[in-house]
Structure formats: C-alpha cells, structure tokens
Amino acid sequence: MPPFIRPRRATALLASSLLAVPVLAGCGGGSDGGDEKGEQHDKGRPKATGAAAGLPAALTGQRLAWRSCPAPSPAQGTDEAPGKEWQCAAMKAPLDYAKPKGETVDVALIRKKATKPGERIGSLVYNFGGPGASGVATLPQAAGDYAKLNAAYDLVGFDPRGVGDTTPVKCLDDKALDRGADSGDAFKDIKRFTKACEKNSAKVLPHVSTATTARDMDLLRHVLGDEKLHYFGISYGTELGGVYAHLFPKNVGRAVFDAVVDPSQDPVRQSLAQTRAFQKALESAMAYCAKEYGAKCPTGKGPAEGNRRLTALLAELDEKPAPTTEGDRELTKELALTAIGATLYEGEDGWKFLAQALGEVIEDGTGDNLLMLADLYNGRDDKGRYSNMHAAHAAITCADTARRYTRADVAAHRPAFEKASPVFGPSQVDGLLGCSQWPVRGTADKPQVAAPGAAPILVIGNTGDPATPVAGARRMAERLGKGVGVTLTVRGEGHGTYGDNRCATKAVDAYLLDGETPADGTVCA
What we know:
It contains 18 helices and 14 strands. Strand 10 (322-323) and strand 11 form a beta hairpin. The longest helix has 27 residues, at 267-293. By secondary structure, it is an alpha/beta fold. The protein is 39% helix and 15% strand. The strands form 3 sheets. The protein has a 10-stranded mixed β-sheet, with helices on both faces. Strands 1-2 form a two-stranded antiparallel sheet.
C-alpha cells in the first residue's frame, strides 16, 4: 500500500466531535493588548455584566499577559508550536462560581491579532468541540480557513476547563490507554476508567460543566474588553454557544454555530440519531468506493455487501488483531472502528482514505493506516503520548447529564442501535454506560438554550454530517427562539461546512464581517 497522507483538515475536524464509543477505545470595542514581554496596554473595559458582575476586582480587572507561545503540551494534543504571530496567556477564573473569592483556575488562551487593525471589530472566540478539544492547539492548525475573518477580528482560542492546559482532567496513563478495553466487558472497563478519573482529578470533576465554561467565556469577553461576545462554535461548540446565549442573551454579538448539536434530545435519542447518521455516511462512502474503484473497492459492490464485509472484518479483528509496524501494537476491533468513523468526518476526502486503509487490512492483513487514523482521532502522538481529550470528554459529558444508564438499559436499547447500524450500533450502545459509575452528579439531560432578546445566531447544518445530524440545526434554531436562530442548510457531506462549502462560507463571512444574515431557511447546494 502507498503511504498514508492525512486529509487537509483532519487534525482540526477529527477533534471537533467525538464518536460516542466506550470511553477506552453588535460590535465590541476595546482591546486588552499586550506585547511580547507581557506588558499591557489596557484600552478600557466594559462595565462588568453577566458572569463578571459578581466577581471580585482581582478577576474582573485582571490584565492578560500575552507572550510568545510555547509548543503545546502533550495534554493539548500536538507538539507543533504556533508561529510568531500567535500569542498565549492565561486568564484566572473561579474554580467554583458559587465561591467567587475562593480558589481560581488558569484558563489557557491563544490569539492572533487582527491583520487590519483599522477594520477591527473585536475578538472572535472559537470552540472546536468535542467536548475535549484544545482550542489553544487547534486554532493555529485551522487558522488558514479563517484568514478573511482574521482581517477584522483577533482570533481567540481557549482550553475549556478540564481540557488541555486548563485544569486538565487526568484518568488512565498512556500505557493503560494503549492496552485499551482489555476485559471484554464494557461495564468493567468503564469502571476502571472512572476510578482512575476520580483518583487523579476528584477536585476538578465537579467544576467542568458546559454552564461553568459558558461563564468562563463571559468573563473572557469582559477581560478582552468586548461589549459583546463574537463567537464561532463547531460541533459541541454549538451546544456551549447555546448555553452561553441562554445565560447571557444581552451579551451575544455575532455568533455562528456550525455542525450543530441537537439540544432537544436525551442521551439515548441523541446517540441513536448519531448512530444512524454515521451509518448513512458510511453507506455513502461505500457507494462512492464501488463507483470509483469497481472490483478493487474493499467494501464490494455497495452498502449491503459493504456492511457484511465490515462486520466480518471487525469480528475477525476481535478474535485476532492485525499486526502493524508500530512495534508490538496491533490493530484491534475498537481501533479499527474508531478509524472508520474518523474518516467520515472529512466527507469525500475521507472516503478515499477509508478505501485505502481498508484495502490494506483486507488485502495485506496489516493495519498501519487504520492505526494511524485511530491514533490521530484518539490524540496519540508518535511518542505514545495521549492528549487528555477523551478524559475531558467523559468528565464534561457526565457533568452535563443526570442519566446513569445500567446494563439492563443497554440491553433494552441494543436492538434499536444494532438495527440503526450493524457496524457502529453495538459499540454506540455500549457507550451509554460511559457515565454509569461517575462519581459526580450531573445536571439536566437537555441543555437550556432559549435566548430571548439575543442578537441573531447563524445556525448551519449539513445533510451528510455523520456526527451532528442536520435535524439538530433546525431544533437548535427553534429553541434559541424566534428572531434569534437563523438556519442555513448545506446539502453536502462531512462534519462542518465553513471553508468547504463556498455558499456557507460566504454567508458566514457576510454575517461576521458585515452583520448581514441570510434569509432564514436558506439552502446551499
């Protein structure tokens, strides 16, 4: 097989929404600037409102010491240092907003200043999803897509609490993560994982909810010197943005939600909808493979044959993992399934890599390409170090739901999941056990996103999105409220649209740069 080449946007997009497999597998004004030595040039702060209103002056009056960025830490998921145009800082926030004068946490930040200061609108804050993706590591990698926006905005990324370098949640070590789900019992494996999280991160686990991170974002808005929060949320970042809008509707500036999480569904319905969407995307990939490669397509003549071949392959890998050239590492069923799902985020580009990687394991009996894809998705670097993406994902997810499913619940739901997807269904339903033994009580199952009085929010869904089905965009817009949610539907494939679909990209630029929203219900081919 030829060497594997990563898709153009894989590093950013594969981090932006985690497939729910078991755990182991208005214009703002001022600027709070700073030079390379961290000296501040405070140009004034807006009045403390929202999250900042009840906080001590030590937090609301803090000045960010922007400096040159070091290389990201292993927990952030990459060792590639950003260029000289990027600056990093840390913002102090309360560990517990109910105790604003108590212990604080340092929220890791990164920014790239507007390239045309005379046209500057304010800061544009990003969240790339997960939950669990490091904004500090991801934004520089994805920034090429946002050059036009960077002319008028400082691009700002952050590690949400529990993620990367912001009080990172720590669970299993790298060697244990390499061993993976080794008991054959999802409940036991998740119990082992949960106990490690409690042992290593008990202090932070009660304080990583989406609502708490939304409060951090409003404090960040204030500290940056912006009257309004201008925001770009992708995947889980849309849920975070919706919660922010609900808590602070008057502070919403120009906001875009791309690849939208459905706020109306409980965990079972949401996971089942995602399972169907992944299966739909996989069958599109298999149809593409049959058309493009004919008899050489590793998934055969179409989806029906492809489903049979893939379920047989996964069963074989469950019995006997495929060898790789990565020392004593093997391609297990869980790693193969992760890799297959990862390619579907990229649309047609990913389908080509899927065909190549499956061809290797089916024809040659080796799993190097699928293992590379799984490692990329799992945040494992070539030194065997894992980011804390999956640990953070578990902690934030379990903080945001009160549901604690049992083995009996999983058994009851298994037929529906396996019907929805013979490939992904079994693993997806086992994923419901992820919070079954979590040591911290979660909040309500459905995020509150109603935001009466907020500025318009552009809500974008993609008909072929495997991770966030397109119906979620419509439901998000409905729940944001009349006159707030503005829907735009893209008829395409893959997870996320900005930078890939010209029509959607043009609509986003028009809103963020000129304040012009498309007509509600606009469809992009």
